Task: inverse folding
């Protein structure tokens, strides 16, 4: 499957973040979004996730697995992990993973396996408020594992993670791509292996 | 479908686990009603004139209290993004959350209503009707309130906005519900106003998830 972006423009208030953006990402690829703070990386990801409406242009998901619901905007094809982790303070880590399993209509043991995979096995009975920033981020990552979806939209996925956590994200991304998935991520610092890069600051300077 | 249902059961659990989500509205409702005799004087005639109306107003305002946090917490911690980004309709989310909060808070409100009714000198023979009226009324108050809650979700101190948006929507329920209570208190026929209040409730349940979903999509945009 593929994700195509045509002539996309986004504005925050009166400020144009980017315009005339064209993009095509296919199965197995990853795209790093780079650029200064405020250059529109998060906004682009939110547009791709269908959360924010673009000022202009369109986003199209096509091919097998794109989902064929009304509107067909790839709703069932993607995961969006923003910079907020969607962790509830009163539920334990395991309860939250199991909630997402029920939410996606997946069996409960998938949640248990995901908790283990992200390295929270010994913290699974801790309520969200007791988790560190990195552990909350790891908990958010379980959503990617609980429900397999071809498109991952990640906003600074390694933020707050330790060395081992960053390695985990790299590993998950590599496995996802090997399985035919695609990843678009806003990144600072270390990037993914063998990845395309788009610099939004440079794009704006060129325009 | 599994999405909305899982959100419903999660919200029900969260509402109870967060230190008793119903405590504040129920306390407010009880306090407002029990202050009334001191304010209007304890002559039986006074209470019979003021009681049902005051009780209904207190129920409406108590239902308004949980609205500020109804969607705000989910918006602030990114949960709404996660819901919206995964393709489950916002309408289902709004319906599931409002219904869960009504069960957690609205039903306790309805079950203390008869105590307050007796305290306000209402006829004891009508307590079952009072529970039913409070159930129907709080349903309307919660669902119309969810529209205001969704509109104000992205605002700091959105409580005032919620009240301004929501109170006009409360007016039909206020009129028919209070009329039914006065009819019951006076031994008259409460059937017609009660049916009209029920119709308003049903209208609220049917339409407010769509309005709230639209407001929530604007809030996360």
Result:
């Amino acid at each position: 499957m593929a994700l195509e972006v045509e002539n996309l423009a986004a504005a925050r208030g009166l400020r144009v973040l980017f315009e005339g953006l064209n993009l095509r990402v296919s199965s197995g690829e990853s795209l790093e979004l780079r650029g200064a703070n405020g250059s529109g990386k998060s906004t682009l990801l939110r547009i791709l996730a269908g959360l924010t409406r673009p000022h202009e242009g369109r986003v199209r998901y096509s091919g097998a697995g794109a989902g064929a619901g009304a509107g067909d905007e790839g709703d069932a094809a993607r995961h969006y992990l923003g910079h907020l982790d969607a962790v509830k303070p009163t539920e334990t880590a395991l309860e939250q993973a199991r909630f997402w399993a029920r939410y996606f209509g997946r069996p409960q043991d998938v949640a248990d396996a995901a908790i283990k995979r992200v390295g929270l096995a010994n913290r699974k009975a801790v309520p969200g408020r007791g988790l560190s920033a990195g552990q909350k981020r790891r908990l958010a990552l379980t959503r990617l594992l609980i429900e397999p979806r071809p498109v991952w939209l990640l906003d600074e996925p390694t933020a707050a993670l330790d060395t081992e956590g960053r390695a985990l994200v790299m590993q998950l991304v590599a496995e996802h791509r090997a399985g035919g998935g695609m990843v678009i991520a806003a990144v600072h610092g270390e990037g993914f292996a063998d990845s395309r890069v788009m610099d939004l600051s440079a794009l704006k300077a060129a325009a | 479908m599994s999405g909305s249902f899982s959100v419903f059961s999660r919200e029900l659990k969260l509402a109870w686990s967060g230190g008793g989500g119903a405590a504040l509205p129920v306390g407010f409702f009880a306090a407002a009603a029990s202050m009334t005799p001191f304010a209007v004087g304890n002559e039986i005639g006074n209470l019979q004139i003021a009681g049902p109306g005051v009780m209904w107003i207190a129920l409406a305002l108590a239902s308004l209290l949980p609205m500020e946090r109804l969607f705000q917490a989910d918006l602030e911690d990114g949960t709404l993004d996660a819901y919206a980004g995964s393709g489950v309709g916002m309408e289902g989310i709004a319906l599931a959350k409002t219904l869960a909060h009504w069960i957690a808070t609205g039903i306790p409100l309805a079950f203390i209503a008869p105590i307050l009714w007796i305290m306000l000198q209402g006829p004891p023979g009508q307590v079952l009707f009072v529970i039913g009226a409070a159930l129907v009324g709080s349903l309307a108050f919660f669902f119309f309130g969810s529209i205001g809650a969704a509109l104000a979700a992205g605002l700091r101190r959105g409580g005032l906005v919620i009240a301004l948006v929501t109170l006009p929507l409360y007016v039909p329920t206020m009129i028919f519900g209070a009329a039914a209570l006065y009819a019951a208190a006076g031994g008259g026929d409460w059937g017609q106003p009660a049916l009209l209040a029920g119709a308003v409730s049903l209208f609220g349940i049917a339409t407010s998830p769509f309005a709230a979903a639209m407001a929530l999509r604007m809030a996360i945009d």
User: Anything to note?
Assistant: Chain B touches chain A through 24 residues (CB under 8 Å). The mean pLDDT of chain B is 91. The CA atoms of residues 74 and 80 of chain B lie 5 Å apart. The first helix of chain B runs from residue 2 to 17.
